Task: inverse folding
């Protein structure tokens, strides 16, 4: 298949200015990949219709951001409830709202230029129908993320405890060779990185997923997050000749978290997003603190939801580390905006983030200097064997848990610090803290002086260090063996799961063939019934015995002959 020449297409966006978009990406995309991108653009624009509809149900003047920056559909005439003649609202009859959602899907299927398969449209329709049937949540403008829509628990709810039924992600993968979503016209804030291993492949490959559905309106908070989303391994199902994969991700409420009436539901996008991009009220994980007074300004409340979605502040993570699943684009240097000039909001945001990074560098240098002076690099809690002299002069060994930055174990009566360097270059006490619970090693008792008094004691201590090092290496080898065994078991389980899926598909195909053959058998039986009825009708007509007829003719001839003889 020949490669396309480089072209720049102008895609018309209703209500948005025309943006030049390089859809062919320097002529490197195949025809199948280009078709897949066009399908995904239409899919994002179609999903945004539902988001606008639900924003209207809850009386909002803005709607969530749109996944496609190059295509927008205007179907607001479908948001009118025919029973009332007005804009549909949340308190209208559920049946009427369901009909509107289904009408939106039919309007997309009936378009002559529609490229989206019906199975994708039906999945998004089902997503929002299920969200409509959840009575506990609605959309409101977020106070933590200015100018953005969030998911809230309805106020004054006296029913059963709130649940997350019907709130989920519908995820669709881009062609695997697509690595820059911004250059191909997609909003990077709605994308995830995902590793998937197809059947027969030795290693998993990276895919970029676009997160659609009601779950994508959940914003980030560093400390007040109450839900998380789970991604099943190797769950992509591919259509469109393997260019587009789809999967579902459900939300899970964190333990010890309660949904209170009127509260906003938050998730956690990851440490990198919290440090570099988050502007929530909790500053414990931010690179800058509240003293900088460099909060990113919000947008005016007067803008309309038909505005360019890039004018809205960021609500989705640029990076997320969750069991190997990352959000796309974790670099602190954002890709250039190819489609328009920066807004005033972006100018203020970049200026504020730049100042925040300068403050972070200043505090980091100060912290490094203080660490150098104290000669202590670790702030993590470590477990190590300490010695303590009893009143009778006998030294006992015990385990203590402490932070090396806050406390050091003093050996001897003169309170003089003495750290013997370990085999790996760390202090002796820290390496002893890596032992398992059953690995206590007796430490020689020290005298009144904090340093060894003879070379023989030093040699014994060094021998003990060598023994510990051997035990550590032995445990590390066993640990590596068990990890490799676990990886092999997981790989086999994944293969078994793929085999089960294939066998189920084969069973379904066999059942379909059985149904077809049974139908053919019934037709043949009906044909045989008709033939048997015709045979019975023929049997009712009297049959002539040829032998009897021949005998009658012979007797008649004999009678005639005898009568002639008698007459003579």
Result:
């Amino acid at each position: 298949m020949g490669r396309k020449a480089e072209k720049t297409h102008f895609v018309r966006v209703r209500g948005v200015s025309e943006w030049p978009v390089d859809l062919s990406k320097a002529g490197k995309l195949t025809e199948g990949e280009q078709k897949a991108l066009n399908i995904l653009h239409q899919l994002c624009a179609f999903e945004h219709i539902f988001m606008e509809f639900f924003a209207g149900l809850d009386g909002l003047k803005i709607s969530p951001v749109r996944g496609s920056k190059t295509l927008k559909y205007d179907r607001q005439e479908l948001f009118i409830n025919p029973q009332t003649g007005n804009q549909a609202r949340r308190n209208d009859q559920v049946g009427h709202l369901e009909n509107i959602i289904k009408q939106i899907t039919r309007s997309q299927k009936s378009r002559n230029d529609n490229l989206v398969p019906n199975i994708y449209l039906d999945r998004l329709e089902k997503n929002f129908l299920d969200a409509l049937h959840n009575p506990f949540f609605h959309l409101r403008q977020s106070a933590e993320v200015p100018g953005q829509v969030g998911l809230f628990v309805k106020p004054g709810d006296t029913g059963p405890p709130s649940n997350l039924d019907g709130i989920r992600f519908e995820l669709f993968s881009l062609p695997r060779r697509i690595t820059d979503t911004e250059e191909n016209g997609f909003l990077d804030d709605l994308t995830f990185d995902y590793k998937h291993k197809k059947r027969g492949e030795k290693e998993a490959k990276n895919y970029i997923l676009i997160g659609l559905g009601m779950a994508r309106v959940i914003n980030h908070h560093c400390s007040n997050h109450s839900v998380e989303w789970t991604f099943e391994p190797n769950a992509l199902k591919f259509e469109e000749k393997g260019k587009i994969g789809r999967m579902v991700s459900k939300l899970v409420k964190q333990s010890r978290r309660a949904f209170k009436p009127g509260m906003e539901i938050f998730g956690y996008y990851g440490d990198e997003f919290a440090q570099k991009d988050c502007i929530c009220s909790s500053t414990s994980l931010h690179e800058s603190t509240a003293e900088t007074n460099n909060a990113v300004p919000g947008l005016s409340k007067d803008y309309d939801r038909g505005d360019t979605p890039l004018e809205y502040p960021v609500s989705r993570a640029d990076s997320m580390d969750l069991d190997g699943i990352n959000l796309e684009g974790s670099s602190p240097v954002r890709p250039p905006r190819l489609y328009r000039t920066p807004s005033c909001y972006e100018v203020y945001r970049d200026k504020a983030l730049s100042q925040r990074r300068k403050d972070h560098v200043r505090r980091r240098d100060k912290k490094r200097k203080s660490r150098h002076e104290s000669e202590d690099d670790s702030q993590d809690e470590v477990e190590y064997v300490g010695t303590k002299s009893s009143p009778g002069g006998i030294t006992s060994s015990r385990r203590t848990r402490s932070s090396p930055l806050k406390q050091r174990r003093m050996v001897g009566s003169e309170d003089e610090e003495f750290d013997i360097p370990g085999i790996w270059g760390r202090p002796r006490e820290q390496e002893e803290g890596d032992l398992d619970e059953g690995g206590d090693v007796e430490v020689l008792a020290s005298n009144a002086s904090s340093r060894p008094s003879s070379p023989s004691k030093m040699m014994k201590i060094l021998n003990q260090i060598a023994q510990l090092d051997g035990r550590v290496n032995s445990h590390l080898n066993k640990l590596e063996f068990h990890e490799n065994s676990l990886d092999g078991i997981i790989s086999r389980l994944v293969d078994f799961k793929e085999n089960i899926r294939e066998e189920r598909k084969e069973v379904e195909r066999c059942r379909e063939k059985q149904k077809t053959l049974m139908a053919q058998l019934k037709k043949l039986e009906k044909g045989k019934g008709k033939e048997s009825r015709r045979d019975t009708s023929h049997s009712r007509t009297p049959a002539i015995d040829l032998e009897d007829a021949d005998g009658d003719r012979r007797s008649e001839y004999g009678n005639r002959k005898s009568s002639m003889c008698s007459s003579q």
Q: What stands out?
A: The mean pLDDT is 71. Residues 9-364 form one domain. Residues 435 and 472 are 7 Å apart (CA to CA).
